[in-house]
Amino acid sequence: MTPQRPNTLHSDILVIGAGPAGLHAAFYAGWRGLRVRVLEARGEAGGQLSALYPDKRVYDVPGLPGARAAEVAAHLLRQLDGLPVDVRVNTVARTLERDGDGWRIETDQGSCTAGAVILAAGLGALLPRAARLPGADTHPDVRTDLPDSTELGRRRVLIVGGVPQAARAALELLEAKADVTLTNSRALLRGDPATLAHLEVARASGQLEILAPARLLSLGPQGAEVEMDGETRVIRADTVLALGGYLPDLSPVQSWPLDWRGEYVPDGAGGRTVLDGIYVVGDLAQSGGDFKLISVAFAQAAVAANHAAHHVRPELKAKPGHSSEKR
Length: 327
What we know:
- By secondary structure, the protein is an alpha/beta fold.
- The protein contains six helices and 19 strands.
- Helix 4 crosses helix 5 (193-204).
């Protein structure tokens, strides 16, 4: 490797994307004893499971029939406990370049180097939708993604949106002693039953105000005006969370010279790409075609991770052996 630049993080294997494919690849590489770093664009791991449909049930995950998507993500993260795996959120991979025998990835948080890279970016970096609220540019603190709830403790927070993340953020902010108001254009909020039940308890006890269905008329420097049942309400807010879901963006990695075929990266045996030491798994891998299934992604991730392990440490065989034979 070339000399490390200041603030460069090094690992044996770097995984781009913390969705099911990326987390399972990280498990296998970590289980083989390699140091693994996972880069995730969003503020939490789980990929599409946690960003797009955390409240929906998933039926094709082996051993977890009918589990909610957020639960599947939690189990995948729990499987990393005790392994040398570091998951970095709010980190978008941008550029790729050779670094001696390995690779360097520049991110919006600094540089990362690794002996091998596993690209598991799915549909792309899931970035929050812009805050398209009237007067959004007049309020001093409008955010579009899940915050660190401890940062907003004891502040007045207005949450706008009915996505599952809105319900979850409301409860987490209440735990942090924030003064929370939740508003949505529709009466129904999305979320898993337990979260929605806790939300209703908080509303009934007066800990939380829910305005739904309601129409946000405008934001201003001090808060917002909301219309509900024909009346206009003024909501004071130090922070506004405009949670409108996420949109996939492949542009950060599509400049990488991987012989792209539209939204797919061609892959050979073991998930190899045209670049030595770069592997692709999950929805991005051309070999999977239209089979955008978690079960397919798991298989690709396991195979690619073990080939990447052998690439980085040739003394490790690509075939990992049976987990039941190891501790």
